[in-house]
Amino acid sequence: MVRGNGFGEDKTIWNEIREYWLRKTGNGGSRGFRLWPIIIIIILAIWIAAGIYTVEPGEIGVVLRFGKEVGRSEPGLRYHLPAPIETVKLVNMAVVRRVEIGFRTNPRYRPIPEESLMLTGDENIVDAQAIVQYKVKNPSNYLFKVKDPDKVLLDSAEVALRSVIGRTTIDDALTVGKVKIQEDSRKFLQQLLDTYQAGLLITDFKLQVVDPPAQVKDSFNEVVRAREDQERLTNEARGYAEDIIPKARGEAEKRIRAAEAYREQRVIKAQGDTERFLEILEEYQKAKGVTATRLYIETMEQVLPNANKVVIGPEASDNILKFLPLGEMGKKQNEK
């Protein structure tokens, strides 16, 4: 056969292809042509069945029609128009993902100094490592707003941690300020992701290590231990003060109340003595002799019961020296 560019020659080529196909498909052209609808139906059925898909629990299916989102599908057996008309992208909304800042654990632990070394607010260097846990909260944003959401999250987490540590002194970063650093970093990171419309939700921001650089780590640890001892002794002193001061105040209050009670007692007694004296004076002015005798007798009644009494008769009145309590007087003199 001579090949050329004319219409008749092209038609001859197609006739040869047709004859070759008829020889391969069976006995005659009519039978071969009858198989074409069956083949087309099978291909069409396979193409239509390609739209069946399954959404697993915890997943969301984002349905795209010619590249534009037209709906979402919940977990279960679903169907979409076959490609290239519609496609589905599945996003797991339940799984908690994580990124590591300053180190990697896959396949084994290794530090990443270019991520972990950071400058504090008082111009010191610390080695900070953290783990960020997150989930997808908006599948559309996660798929289409940013090119690589996980990489964006890693870079943003490093930015957030550096920003917060850059506003923190090294003393706070190494001791009592870690909780605040974690919380502030989580909030700042979430704000960045929302600004980028990354469709991610931060569930946890956990510091793993906040240490001074290895070259000065021992010296910093000594300083930290000294500060901890200072804090401990300060707390002990405060505890002692809080214990002894209330006791002292209670004792002072007790003595004040006792003094006030004694004062009231003395005042009442003095007022009573004054009233009694005035009554006696009034009676004395009425009958001086009787009143003087009565006062003398009352005084003796108070004095004599407590005194050692020796009754001496007339026959011993000339020698009373032996009755004097000279021994007791000597003992009292020695005691003085």
In short:
The protein is an alpha+beta fold and 336 residues long.
Entry keywords:
about 325 residues; alpha+beta; Tetrahydropterin Synthase, Chain A; three-stranded antiparallel sheet; 11 strands
- Count of β-strands: 11
Note poorly predicted spans. 1-10
- Rounded Rg: 55 Å
Task: Return the CATH class of the domain at 97-212.
Answer: Alpha Beta
Structural class: alpha+beta
User: Largest sheet, described in full?
Assistant: 4 strands, antiparallel
Would you mind describing this structure in some detail?
With 336 residues, this protein is of the alpha+beta class. Among the domains are: 7-49, no CATH class; 53-90, no CATH class; 97-212, Tetrahydropterin Synthase, Chain A, CATH 3.30.479. The protein contains 10 helices and 11 strands. The protein has helices at residues 7-25, 29-49, 113-116, 139-144, 149-165, 170-174, 178-196, 217-286, 288-303, 326-335, and strands at residues 52-55, 59-65, 68-73, 76-79, 86-92, 97-101, 103-104, 110-111, 117-119, 125-136, 200-211. The strands form 4 sheets. Strands 6, 9, 10 and 11 form a 4-stranded antiparallel β-sheet that branches. A hairpin with a 5-residue loop joins strand 7 and strand 8 (110-111). It starts with 6 loop residues before the first helix and ends with a helix. Mean pLDDT is 81; it is low at 1-10.
